[in-house]
Amino acid sequence: MKKTGTFIRNSALILLTTLMFAKGFTQDRKKSDSLIHLLSENDLSIRSKAATLRLLAIYHPSIDTALFSAKRSLELAIQIDDPLLQAEALEEISGLEYRLGNNTQSLEATLKGLRIYETLGLEERQAASYAQLASNHLGNNAFDTAISFLKKAERIYRNSEEPINLVSTVHNLGEAYRLAGYLDSATLSFEKTLALNKKIKNEFIESYTLGNLGMVFSAQNKLAVAKNYLNKAIDILNSLEDTYSVAIYSAELGTVYKKEGAFSSAEEKYLEALDLAQKINIKEPIRDFNLMLSEFYAFQEKYDKALFHQKQYQVYQDSLINKQNIQKIEQLTAGYEIDKRESEIDVLQAITTNQKKWMLILGICTLVILLFVYLLYRGNRKIQKINKSLSQQKAIISNREQEKVILLKELNHRVKNNLQMISSLLNLQSRELSGHQAQEAIIAGKNRVEALSLVHRKLYQDGIETRIQLKEYMEELVLGLFHAYDAKFKPDFKITAISIGIDQAIPLALIVNEMVINALKYAYEDISNPILNIQIKEKDSDLEVEVIDNGTGFSLENSKKENSFGIKLIHSLVTQLNGVIEKSTNNGTHWKMSIKTT
Prior knowledge:
The chain has 598 residues and is of the alpha+beta class. It contains 24 helices and seven strands. Helices cover 75% and strands 7% of the residues.
């Protein structure tokens, strides 16, 4: 029987094993530095640059930089029309997009690479693509499809000169069985993996297999055996500095303790797993661990903590896969199968001209039939035209309205994606400027872009065409800033449940963004009990906004910042909203603003 829920969310290691085996289990910083130095040389050919950028994607520890390098490698490979280099770059893009939680982009890259490998007749490369396709389908709980792809890969790797290919594929097949709930088959595959690994003695394979066996025994409630296997896996992975996998198995160990009733130990392991996931900043485990903690605290009736982790779960869930991703994945898979069938038809047509003649005759007959059907349809339409005229007009109007809604949603989606890309680029640039006086300005710009991105994410996600739910939006915006600046206290919200138009939501978001950042950066030095109140309410036809802190207020030095870009931006946006704003600095800073609602 297949299982769902927390059991499935507890593992993402099939992806990790596939990628780690392909890359030789290393992301060597020195290697990436030497590759960056090599790229700075001007005498490299385009082909050499493409190959070097792909290697940089393999070795660089930053996923964002690695993905940028892989995409640039693909552009150069297309420029020189080198299909093998294109396929290799697509393979790296697929793995990196999957690690970022972008399953749709990962699948699209995998299928493009697979088509090239099939054209070139490279079977082992095809097997690697099958393994990645299995990971993509596991991400959408399509377990039987994933198992089918892994079996294809296993058949190819039986004749491989590299035994690690077969061992990793057998391990991944066991993990697919485990996620599907076929626990006996999973156990057999993992035991086979351990036996095969005795020849190559790979510590990564051993640790993942032991950990996944621990998960199988946990699901079967063989808790003592599960703890033994999980602890062995964690010990090995700690020595290998594999933080991602340690986090996964620590969370599972927390589940084992929870089943035993050792709630203190369970809480400790859950929090340890979340901390590790946040350090490496990979979205999917952060989301899953927050949900596990929310459920754990709710079970313990600690509802304040449960609510906090539930909100954190929702923040990360919003940026990951949704129903439209799944639909696009199905379309891409279907497109791949259609392309493959069309290629087979082209080959058959080239072999026999006789079949071409029959196809031509069949086409002519089909056209004649279609013409006859069309003439019948035209005749029938004339008879019914008067009775159906009104309903047809209504249908046309309805379709046009639906098209407008779809186009507006797509526009918001593209704007959201572009803003997120800009934010990522600014974030990457700020890291490069560590310690430089320009870093703060770039971080401030990134925060403003993220405030804009949040508006469009709400529009696209919630299906709202032109209005934003102000309370939910402002809370998410401010909590995100508190998280970014590592604030140790919580803001106090008093916001009326109203909606406002996007033309007001964007300027208002930027204003509140500037006020909150100013408070977090300058207000609370030597303040033992910091407070930040956000109050928004309707009064008559006005919207009143107040941001209040109990900080040190504006000192003489800070008063000079009245002419800073942030302060100028606040006053400019208030003027744009036809509002008024005033500030007082008694016992802290108190901003009060009034704008007309629309």
